[in-house]
Amino acid sequence: MSVSPSNSFLSSFINNQKGWVSLPIIALLLAISSLSTHFQNTMIASYQWRGQLTDLEEDQQIWRDFIDNYVTSPSFHLAMLSDCVGFCDLAEQQASDEESTWSKDGQILRYQWSRYDLSEDKDKDKDKDEDEDEEEESEGETTSVIQTSYRLCATQNQQAYLCWWWRDGKLLSSGWVAVN
User: What 3-state DSSP class applies to 91?
Assistant: First the structure.
């Protein structure tokens, strides 16, 4: 069998260049494996992010449930009268019976429901002579409530409280308060 000159040249070129033929294939495989590794790292990061987001949403669910139960339609009659002028410090009430516990799905929130009544004397506009007589009869003094303010504060760690403030039944403000 005779080999034509063009076939023999091609045959000898391929036999002499075995390394050159496989080098582009190796480069292609390296590029594909690099892309595959990058894609898998991106997918792992995405799954980790979704897992953290799910954990965070589960942690926030207790706050949404608490707000639904206490803030959306507050039960002002449950608020305890504040012993302080204004509202007492949150830290003072932490270990007392003024701090209650609320739990849902194994998670616990501690909360404080306080009320402060701003009042004034009813007989404020009387003459000084009559005021002197009243000083002698201090038992007969009367006061009237001008404004009633409420504060609801809840916490999971007794370091940071989420609080809501109402005056005369209207929500005024809400925000986080840190206890030092």
Answer: helix
> Are 160 and 176 within 8 A, CB to CB?
yes
How many C-beta atoms lie closer than 10 Å to residue 175's C-beta?
Answer: 9
Residue 178, helix vs strand vs coil: strand
Across the chain, what does the average pLDDT equal? 77
Which residue(s) pair with 23 in the sheet?
none
Task: Name the 3-class secondary structure at 115.
Answer: strand
- Residue 149: count of CB within 10 angstroms of its CB: 18
pLDDT at 134: 45
pLDDT digits (tens, 9 = 90+) for 135-173: 444 455 566 767 888 989 898 887 888 999 998 889 999
Write out the two tokens for 113: 């429901």
Rounded to 5°, the CA angle 163-168-170 comes to: 55
Among candidates 174, 130, 169, which has minimal Cα distance to 147?
A: 169
SS (H, E, C) 119-139: EEECCCCCCHHHHHHHHHCHH
